[in-house]
Amino acid sequence: MKLNRRAVFGTVTASALALSLAACGGGDDDDSGSDGDMVSGEIIGTGASFPDAYYAAAIEAYADVNPDLIVTYDAVGSGTGKSDFGEGLNDFAGTDSLVAEGDGPEEGAYQYIPTVAAPITVSYNLPDVEGVQLGQETLAAIFQGDITSWDDDAIAADNPDLELPTTDITIAHRSDGSGTTGNFTLFLDEATDTWTLGAGDTVEWPSNSVGGDGNTGVAQNIQNTEGAIGYVDLADATETGLTFASIENADGNFVQPSLEGTTAGLDGAVVNDDLSYNPLNASGPEAYPITAPTYILIQTEYEDADKAAGVKAFLTWLLTDGQEIAADVHFAALPEGLQQQALDTLNETIPD
Amino acid sequence: MTTLTNGTPPDLTGKNLSFKRAAANRAATLGIALCVLIAAFPLGLVAYQVISRGGSAMSLGFFTEEIARNYRTEGGGMGPAIVGTLLITGMAALISIPIGVFGAIYLNEYGKTSPLAKFIRTMSDVMTGVPSIVMGLFIYVAYVVVIGERNGLAGALALACLMLPIVIRSTEEMLRLVPDELRQASAAMGARKWRTTLGVVLPAASSGITSGSLLAVARAAGETAPIIVTVGLTYIYKPDLFDGANTTLAAQIYRNATQPFDASQERAWGAAMALIMIVFVFTIVSRIIASRFAIDKR
């Protein structure tokens, strides 16, 4: 028995030694083998779940480009992302909405870097009913609880050709502080006169509603509830097989959410000095009205030079080669002008 | 005490009972057996569901590979989460079990009914009922925000806070069960109080202390909420608890199960099965250890 224990102890010690030696050896190899301009280390981002489908695919692809820089993105919602940023818990934050007072990040401590844009779909769950069209006022009435049944006259007026069931409407919304909610309510607030719930990352939803965590949480709720309607990013809505409504745009046409419609919306948007822009309800016959931008917040001054280099390397890739995978996962790449502007700002904010 | 030495032993087989009493006896026995079945039924269903659904995700790669960077696509494993679970729960046990056991020794052997001991006893009873997320938020405010980083140790601290009251109370109950005659015998042999406690009382209670601590460890291993608040997320192996964000199986189950994608749902079931297996192995190993250390059955 004693001998056995010793043998076990010996094996454990030996293998631990071997492991640590191997680790050291590996480190040496990396140093001599790298091209010099490859950054290594680890950077952590938290925030918006709206662009998560794109960031997750991008991080997966980036792991092949530079396996030494470990990028983690935790889709906890824009609200938590911004407060984490304020507390210094992340190296960059993802957000779809702009920073408001009390969100966490201090004035002057952050810089917006736009990455991609995508339509917010209005998805619904009505078996056997396809091609629902919703006017902007009807949409507002549904989401503030004025219309509670699918066979309401206002919905019927938008859809003269459809046979609508008597199913009750359940609103699926975000339970966490969300930039998707921010953009969706901002659209309803700007586009309609009747919207009374205001705009913000969280709003007081009516009682016939159910909250979900993250865009995928909302998608799951729509999927599981007959009669549900909610707002979900195009990528998650497509991947979970949801049906989306066509939404009336500024020109009065009913438009399905699509990447072409989003790009059409981006072209009409005015970019501010801080690189924020508002593509909501842009004019143009093909433009999809609920198009949301998404940003990454970077710190204007990083304490740790390695983190700064890591963030810069990843974002530079995201704004160049990374843009090419956007369309595959249902996100619209930035127009070239804005892409260049974002790169310039990145280089100014984090100089080499 | 009187002893029954003469005459036939009492008939306990129940054969000679009156019809009424026999029927009542039968009915009660059946009722109890039914309760056992009802109690075991959900457990069996859970085990069946987890094994049948999680089984398909199982493979060697599932235990060793890094976590998939994208929920939506298949592939990847749970290696880092398994290591994270073991390390974070292990660290939490390392912090809370010694403190808890020594705290319980103070309460039962020294403090007894002093005001301080009473106060601690009441407080630990109250703490047992505190929701785990509160412990997570406490560590978030007291540690994570202060050092400006989510890391594995923060999770271990939150779990340790959660385990501490359970360990204290269960250990104290076990120490109370040790007969005073043993303490007196030890004292009569000339042993000092600390000697008696370490050499007689603790070994006598060791199997009970182990199962109490184990209950706490098993509960901590399955905790999700405090881990998500304090530990963050990572895809890679993080053997160093001080080195940035980490992850555990429970957190991975939550993250993957709340995604509507088939690949992530399957991963969640697989992770659930892995967690159950780990807790199962833990239980068996510590039972063996406890039975080795325990003083011969009294």
Task: Characterize the structure shown.
The complex is a heterodimer of chains A (352) and B (298). Chain A is 39% helix and 19% strand. Chain A is of the alpha/beta class and 352 residues long. The longest helix of chain A is centred in the N-terminal third of the chain and has 32 residues. The N terminus of chain A is likely disordered. Chain A starts with a helix and ends with a helix. Chain A has two domains: 185 residues, D-Maltodextrin-Binding Protein, domain 2 (3-Layer(aba) Sandwich); 147 residues, Periplasmic binding protein-like II (D-Maltodextrin-Binding Protein, domain 2, 3-Layer(aba) Sandwich). Chain A is built from eleven helices and 13 strands. In chain A, the strands form two sheets. In chain A, strands 1, 2, 3, 4, 6, 7, 8, 9, 12 and 13 form a ten-stranded mixed beta sheet that branches. In chain A, strands 5-10-11 form a three-stranded mixed beta sheet. Chain B is mostly helical and 298 residues long. Chain B folds into two domains: 43 residues; 236 residues, MetI-like (MetI-like fold, Orthogonal Bundle), CATH 1.10.3720. Chain B is globular and about 80 Å long. At the A-B interface, strand 1, helix 2, strand 2 and helix 7 of A face loops of B.
Secondary structure tally, helices of chain A: 11
For the terminal residues of chain A, how far apart are their CA atoms?
61 Å
The major β-sheet of chain B equals:
none
Helix amount of chain A, in percent? 25-40%
Q: What are the secondary-structure elements of chain B, in order, as H or E?
A: HHHHHHHHHHH
> What structural class do helix, strand and pairing data of chain A support?
alpha/beta
Structurally, the number of domains of chain A stands at 2
Structural class category of chain B: mainly alpha
Helical percent range of chain B?
Answer: over 70%
Uncertain spans of chain A, ≥5 residues at pLDDT below 50? Answer: 1-36
CATH superfamily of the largest domain in chain B: MetI-like
Mean pLDDT value of chain A: 85
Terminal-residue CA separation of chain B = 20 Å
CATH topology of the largest domain in chain A: D-Maltodextrin-Binding Protein, domain 2
According to DSSP, the number of beta strands of chain A is: 13
Order of helices and strands of chain A: HEHEHEEEHHEHEHEHEEEHEHEH
The stretches of 5 or more residues of chain B where confidence is low (pLDDT under 50) are none
The CATH topology name of the largest domain in chain B reads MetI-like fold
**What characteristic shape of chain A results from the CA principal axes?**
elongated
